[in-house]
Amino acid sequence: MMEISLNMYHAVALGAVLFWIGGVITDKVSVLNRYCIPAPLVGGLLFSIINCILTVSGVASITFDGTLQAVFQNLFFTTVGFTVSIPALLRGGKSVVLVLILSIIMIPIQNALGGGIMLAFGQDPLIGIGIGSTALIGGPATAAAYGPELVKAGAPAGADVAALAAATFGLVSGSLMGGPVARSLIVKHNLHSTEGHVSDTGEVSGEDESFTSASPRFVKGFMLLLAALGIGAQISVWLTALTGLTFPSYIGAMLTAVVIRNVMIAVKVEYPDQEIDTMGTMFLSIFLALALSSLKLWELVDLALPMIICLLLQCVVMVIFSYFVVFNVMGRDYEAAVMSAGFIGFAMGATSNAMANMQVVTKKYGPAPVAYFAIPMVGSMFIDFFNAVLITFNINLFVDMFH
Fold first, then answer.
1. Inter-CA distances, 70 with 212, 246, 286, 396, Å
2. CA dist., res. 74 & res. 44, Å (int)
3. By CB count within 10 A, which of 144, 167, 327, 398 is most buried?
4. What pTM was estimated for this model as a whole?
5. What is the pLDDT of residues 204-235, one digit of tens each?
6. What is the DSSP letter of 63?
7. Cα separation of 267 and 253, whole Å?
8. How large is the greatest C-alpha to C-alpha distance in the chain, in angstroms?
9. Three-state secondary structure call for residue 313
């Protein structure tokens, strides 16, 4: 069998090409657009399927140097830390805090369910973390980042592949479940929007895809990222030594970014938020394309049945939690019903799925401004930070208990 080894420059070039290919495919295939499937996930998964066919058939095997993948991963998670604005959280008030608390509660539920199902099938429970909050609340980015960490902690080969496969499943299932749950709640309780009628276009304004900037702001943002990345790497080392838990290098970078962002707010220094957000999108795109393209899909054979059962149960638990807990805690009104749809979207997939779910509901039943504020605030700003910390804790806990 021919072996093809790509160095880090080849790999990152391939990642860029796969991102473009994925973009073309998602533009052409309506179902991918409907479920908000990211372009790098599509391109990377397509390549991994081709690589799997070549490997299984004995034709060729393609391997990668993952050096730059790790760099882009850490840079992306550093940008996540910069999104945590304490004043914004406080301004969000009760709804944001409650959604955040509910999301934090869901993290160990997903991990315990995943670990329990794997144990029941005689598999390593660490795999359950990969197909728990790592893949679902975390989404493809967190799955790609923590998959290798699970293997390092003692999970068998294929745990990283399972995590990314589960993340892809979560993106689709989260989009499928959100709307029906909200509709059921609205009809059952005869709920109505208190914000008037939907606009003539039926559209709700979202994030602007363009902004005005200048090169000094981009330079400032990039230098802040590099500073947080470097300082954070050492903080992760200190945290590991202090707690005895194993922390990925980007945990320290995320913490450092949180501190830098909020110190800048406190001393009223301009923060280049849109520039750092844009860089985060760039880093995430190339990181996901690289992570998905290096999947070894043939390692999933032994995990297929327990994975399917686990993911179906994750869906059942998510529907029950959203229908009975999220709806009741958030106030049992129309806003709470819309937030239930949004909660399913980001707790099973990504914030974009949450917004898509809520848009479908609000187009038919009317605006829900509180939901449109609280759900993306938690889904895109705060939950990734708490999820990363709790995943690390769960990994170390499972290692102590079962290894």
1. 30, 17, 11, 21
2. 19
3. 144
4. 0.72
5. 334 445 666 678 889 999 999 999 999 998 99
6. E
7. 21
8. 65
9. helix
